[in-house]
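Problem 12. The chain below contains 292 residues. Write out its predicted structure in token notation.
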Amino acid sequence: MHENKSETFNFIKKSIHIPKDIIVKESANELLKGLIVSKTGLYEKAHGHRVIGRVSHEYVLVYCLDGKGCLELSGQKWDIYKGDLFICDIDLPHSYLSDDTEPWTILWAHFMGKNAQSFLNLLNLSPDTPVINIGYHQKLTYMFNEIFTALENGYNTANLIYSSTCLQNIFGYLIKVKISSGHSNLSFDVDKVIEFMRANLNKSFHLEHFSDYLKISPSHFCRVFKKITGYSPIDYFIRLKMQKACELLDLSDMRIKEISRCLGYENQYYFSSVFKKIVGYSPKEYRKLQKG
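Solution.
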């Protein structure tokens, strides 16, 4: 990243702005209509940083890595702290400024596109609720930096598509983290259960095996697991098995009978029936398609 001291304020600014004519031209690209990044950057220990009464024709996404500040939007004010992320909507006057005693360090990006609002809706980000506390995540800082590096290398279509993909990855990661944090008060760790499932794909388990592993009732476990993943525990376990079966059919020369036993199915024909129900092809058909 290019580093320079702001001539107005005494803090390090790193930013990339895409010329407007390039944004207009590239927005016609089918892969960029949905989401395109127009500006991005990092302000470090930004003492004196302030945006007052700005109206932007783009969405503005700001991630606070350190320090604190505040946001004013729609006549309301929010204090911003480390780990907070906020959004400023299109064509809506907004102000945000760094704290004088604990100036913030922020990563930010301006973006637009027909899919932008859908991502924000999934995160419940709106003018009335523009702030979420997501905490510090190294993955987020990495993806913001990837956007910057891509655009720093030039405004060609490939770099714009890559930066757009990185922003989509940011939204996808935020949605995943938000869902997980929303269930942080649950009595068990769903990711831990899925890890246990993956480690035991060679076995035939019933619901009680998983609930006993967690030492909770089967009914409670099943209800919560389905609420979070959208699938019952056994259905999810079977789908993990079929995912592994696809991998083995594609990347190994194991016979279907061997794959069946490897995944806890003694009856090859039952395994093939389950595989076809979920994947849409029989194991033999799937392998033939993958091998060309």
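Discussion. The domain at 4-182 is CATH 2.60.120.280 (Jelly Rolls). Students who got a different answer should revisit the alignment rule from Section 12.3.
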